[in-house]
Amino acid sequence: MREFEPRIIAFLCNWCSYAGADLAGTSRIQYPPNVRIIRLMCSGALDPVYVIKALLEGADGVLIGGCHPGDCHYQNGNYKARRRVAILKSILSQIGFDEERVWLRWISASEAKYFADTVKEMVASLKEKGPNPLKGIGEI
Amino acid sequence: MINAMLEVEENTLSTIVGLLQSLLERGIVNALLVPIPTLSLDNVVQTLVLDPARLKGANIIAPVLPVSSAKLVAYLTATGAKGKLGAVMRSCEIRALIELVKLQQAKLEDVVIIGVDCLGTYELTDYAELARSIGKEVSLELLAGSKEGRLSPHNGYQFRSACRICEHFSSDLEGFYQPDIAIRLIGLDSEREVAVMASDELAEKLDLKEEGMPETRMEALEKIAKERASERDRAFSDFRSRVVDVQSLLGEFSTCIRCHNCMVACPICYCKECFFRTDTFYHPSERYFKWAERKGAIRMPTDTLLYQLTRLNHVVISCVGCGMCESACPSHLPLATIFRAIGEGVQAIFDYVPGRRLEEEIPLATFREEELTELG
User: Fold this and answer.
1) B274 CB near a chain A CB, below 8 Å?
2) CB pairs below 8 Å between A and B: how many?
3) B99, B187, B212, B265: which sits with the fewest CB atoms below 10 Å from its CB?
4) pTM for the complete prediction?
């Protein structure tokens, strides 16, 4: 049987994490191809509806990337994102869904290696967890 | 603050009407939002009254709540009330209004809040049935029991599930926002005298004198609060043992028909245009087939669970547990319990109690630099 390959949806902020991912590419740093990146202007602009949609559609993990605390291009969007993620994770765990499938990481524009390492680490963690139990359930 | 007693001459309700009339007649308010029975007498609805004569028959203790008046006060003040507005409200309505003020959907500057002890509320259809069969007794029997701290529904009926687990039935709550005037009934002999708490300024205008508060009050409040809290804990633990994984979660919402009634009834869901009602969810036809192809089969209409989970994320931090969502649900989903139980966990992260105080910022509108570092 072929090994399970998790699918990760990554919401990355335009100013830091997306640039970090871009640098990983231009620097030819190798990382697993399991991640599909969606660029946002700010991690603070991510409504939880998109994360929930990704999970209900069967994404095995969701990575949210923003600027390091204090570095937000819009002063404090990442702090607000952190609160939103805290609420989302609390709700997910209270309804019996593994909240550790959602990761929040601060990745700067220069941290190409850290981005690649984060993806590697997340893929390994999700491989251990196995597929998202919502995958294939049409009744959602 | 002045604690006064109004002697009952004819009956409790007419004494309260007298107090409300003097608010209008003395120009303390220019308009009043008051629960008044409909002509059919089987419902009691919030009514905007400018003519004091029209207050006759008002019944502010009727155990029915068709709409959360927090929403109505928002309509009446969002772009500035015309003069002073007095609003008779239960605790859950006041707490929802505080949240709406923080969300900049209502203004309190020109509002005199008249808080009233809530004796519990029935579902609309139950209230109508009871009102038709026993008339005013549907309210008065609760008033009689409230003296000893006993709020039991009529034989064979139940209060709304949100009320059964509500420990915030009085605006007399330590540390909570206090209304300008409070009409107190629980633990008091309201058939003989009605207890009214008012700010010094309002008390002077209404000729109210300090007379103290009988000790029986606190005892009765605590007795009910204790009963309700144990009922609440039971409902929460029942929910938590029921919903443990994805399968059980799906079961919880399996009868949702995505009608959006809960959103319309919710006082906190204030968006003029909900995301779920935009074109985003009128997908191109082809897309449904693609989803069905990928999963093999999909439930139609789509996005039922997405709607419920997103509403939880958007609303739960400010949920005051009024249960209007559950009352509006045609499938009787246990939304009041779900939102309150999950709300408890979420609100605890920020030590936030919705509706408690105006000064406490809604957690999503603010942040601390040093917090939640385990997340990132």
Assistant:
1) no
2) 111
3) B212
4) 0.95
CB contact under 8 Å between B367 and A91, yes or no, is no
- CB distance from B368 to chain A under 8 Å? yes
For B63, which DSSP code?
S
- Read off the pLDDT of residues B271-287 as tens digits, 9 standing for 90 and up: 989 999 999 888 999 99
Q: Is B356 left (phi over 0), alpha (psi -120 to 50) or beta?
A: alpha
CA gap A129, A8 in Å, rounded: 13
Which of B295, B350, B364 is the closest to A138 by Cβ?
B295
Tell me: the pLDDT tens digits for B69-118? 999 999 999 999 889 999 999 999 999 999 999 999 999 999 999 999 99
Q: Give residues with Cβ within 8 angstroms of B214, minimum separation 6.
A: B187, B188, B195
Per-domain residue ranges for chain B? Answer: 2-233, 235-375
Which residues from chain A sit within 8 angstroms of residue B350, using beta carbons?
Answer: 83
Q: Which residue has the tokens 């640098």?
A: A23
Q: Block means of pLDDT (10 residues each) for chain B, length 376 residues?
A: 93 96 96 97 97 96 97 96 95 98 96 97 98 96 94 97 96 90 95 94 94 90 96 97 89 94 96 91 92 90 93 97 98 96 97 96 92 89
CB contact B372 to A (< 8 Å) = yes
Instruction: Say if CB B138 and CB B62 are below 8 A apart.
Output: yes
For residue range A19-31, list pLDDT tens digits in order: 999 999 999 999 9
Angle between helices A112-129 and A17-26 (to 10 degrees): 100
Mean pLDDT of chain B: 95
Q: In degrees rounded to 5, what are phi and psi of residue B213?
A: -125, 125
Q: How far is B214 from chain A (nearest CA, A)?
A: 43
Pairwise CA distance, residues B103 & A75, whole Å: 22
Judged by CB atoms closer than 8 Å, whether chains meet at A56 and B305 is answered as: yes
Is the CB of B244 inside 8 Å of chain A's CB atoms?
Answer: yes
Nearest by CB to A104, from B246, B309, B376: name it: B376
- Cβ of B244: how many Cβ atoms within 10 Å? 11
The answer to whether the CB atoms of B376 and A86 lie below 8 A apart is: no
Q: Is B41 on the interface with A (CB under 8 A)?
A: no
Q: What is the pLDDT of residues B291-327, one digit of tens each?
A: 899 888 999 999 999 999 999 999 999 999 999 999 9
Q: Which residue has the tokens 């609309």?
A: B124
pLDDT > 70 in chain B, percent? 100
Is the CB of A95 less than 8 angstroms away from the CB of B306? no
Contacts of B233 (CB under 8 A, 6+ apart): none
| Residue B298 in contact with partner chain A when CB distance is under 8 A | yes
Please judge whether B376 and A139 are an interchain contact, meaning their C-beta atoms are less than 8 angstroms apart. Answer: no
Q: Angle A133-A134-A139 (CA atoms, 0-180°, nearest 5)?
A: 140
